[in-house]
UniProtKB/TrEMBL annotation:
<protein>
    <recommendedName>
        <fullName>ABC transmembrane type-1 domain-containing protein</fullName>
    </recommendedName>
</protein>
<dbReference type="GO" id="GO:0140359">
    <property type="term" value="F:ABC-type transporter activity"/>
</dbReference>
<keyword id="KW-0812">Transmembrane</keyword>
<feature type="domain" description="ABC transmembrane type-1">
    <location>
        <begin position="1"/>
        <end position="52"/>
    </location>
</feature>
<keyword id="KW-1133">Transmembrane helix</keyword>
<dbReference type="GO" id="GO:0005524">
    <property type="term" value="F:ATP binding"/>
</dbReference>
<keyword id="KW-0472">Membrane</keyword>
<dbReference type="GO" id="GO:0016020">
    <property type="term" value="C:membrane"/>
</dbReference>
<dbReference type="InterPro" id="IPR036640">
    <property type="entry name" value="ABC1_TM_sf"/>
</dbReference>
<dbReference type="InterPro" id="IPR011527">
    <property type="entry name" value="ABC1_TM_dom"/>
</dbReference>
Amino acid sequence: MGGVLVLLGVCGLGFALICQYVASVASQGFGTELRRELYHHINTLSHKEVDE
């Protein structure tokens, strides 16, 4: 019975690590895309809009 408890704990740890990894990759991709879109938007502004 104790072995099952340890096995479930190890499985839980593994799934938690995988979840954290996937979440970090997703948030990194979101930040990269947001910066890219912001950069392109800023480059389309006129000089007058930038000076405001």
